[in-house]
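Fold this: Alpha-L-glutamate ligase-related protein
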Amino acid sequence: MFGFWKTWKALEARGIMGINRRNADYVLKYNKRSLYPIVDDKIITKERAIAAGIHVPQMYGIISTEKEIDKLDEIIGGRSDFVIKPAQGAGGDGILVVADRFEGRYRTVSGKIISHEEIEHQISSILTGLYSLGGHRDRALIEYRVVPDQIFKSISYEGVPDIRIIVLMGYPVMAMLRLPTRQSGGKANLHQGAIGVGVDLATGLTLRGTWLNNIITKHPDTTNAVDGVQLPNWDGFMTLAASCYELCGLGYIGVDMVLDQEKGPLILELNARPGLNIQIANDCGLTLRTHAVEARLEELKAAGVTETPQERVKFVQEMFGHIPQVEG
């Protein structure tokens, strides 16, 4: 028992945030329950982002009832690739990614050939709530298929890598790149076997990685190094994440973004209960950073000042950046 207590005190000294602290001090304190639907429903998130001028994958259509499944051909039109996902899904479950058409059928991103009827069956399963939070009836969203930037080709296996940034009251406090693996089935989900790679807030350079809760330096499928990769348009990602506070009103969120090879940074979804593995990937605790942001907020409140997303980004980059930015 003494050994456990000693270990826990050491973790606390490093600012490691546990799930109880996350829930009590941040999720419950900063996230109003009435605002949860904005982030728990991907369609609502997308509609609000579009209205705010924030870039998201284009929405082709929504199917809300079994009868509306007949509209699938009309929604897809002549497109050869698209994504179907549950509006209230979690963990990547229920998502179908179609990459091409083949002899009257469809080819998924993993190479599997499926029929139109199988797609309709998948949509029907989504509507019944099979993949939704709490098992409630859901809606199916059909949208643009993101094509990952070429920068990820050597350090990712199939699927779409994404970037998770945790944001407190509009201040990005920690970032992680999530890379699909063969084990994760091409999904950027850590619980299913994807890799989490820390990202320096100041520069967008990747740090070390965590895979199945182990520290790694190379991707298990490509064997290429995951650290030292420069993510393009990093300030754009940071500003996009900071702006999501105004978008949803929730004070403690995880912002998930992707880098499309043509459209650049896009918001994928928001999460009101972001996981804590990001601390392993960054070899750094969240609590020290969140306390620094809360102290900053107190100073600004006393001075009667608020900061823009760009000013908030500049503050955290100067405060939390591992590596000094290089002057151009």
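The chain has two domains: 16-39+149-320, 58-143. DSSP finds ten helices and 13 strands in the chain.
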